[in-house]
Design goal:
The complex is a heterodimer. Chain A is built from no helices and 11 strands. Chain A is mostly beta strands. Chain A has a single domain, classed as Immunoglobulin-like, CATH 2.60.40.
Chain lengths: 114, 113
Amino acid sequence: EAGVAQSPRYKIIEKRQSVAFWCNPISGHATLYWYQQILGQGPKLLIQFQNNGVVDDSQLPKDRFSAERLKGVDSTLKIQPAKLEDSAVYLCASSLGGVEETQYFGPGTRLLVL
Amino acid sequence: SQKIEQNSEALNIQEGKTATLTCNYTNYSPAYLQWYRQDPGRGPVFLLLIRENEKEKRKERLKVTFDTTLKQSLFHITASQPADSATYLCALDAAGGSYIPTFGRGTSLIVHP
């Protein structure tokens, strides 16, 4: 079974630029999560999708971050414009979609904002 | 406010010993708690889930306990090996039963040969 795919793996941008990350979850997984993990901290949930609907986006900085999950499969997370404090690893995870479901994480995208 | 606490200091132990990691939480009433392993440059990998009505769960060399009175979970690795060296994260579902996971910052385990 293929795992969660993410691209790019690394990205370096200047502040105020835009960036987009892509995630392809495990086939058949209804729930998709985007997390931000700052160095030395645990993953922080940004947004959770159930199929292509948003379950929770309470911690997503909506003035600069946006995410979509078209057709309930792939997802993109965008930052526009980026700030220095956005430097982090952005993790995508997916699960089958029930409660207590195990999450399967992708390798993450490491973003550095200069 | 809700808080999950894991020891920020690395745990150093000798190969063959039992490693014990702690996860404390406040202002939560979690329905379940999960433990994940994270290696450098990789995403977390699920290890074990324990529900609020379970006291203990085992999987091979791993054991997790869950004390809802103390608001604490202990994660044990018996007969530890250098390959067990990693960061271990605990995660709880958010209060209110919305099943939105919240992670602790993790504890780094270093097993010395």
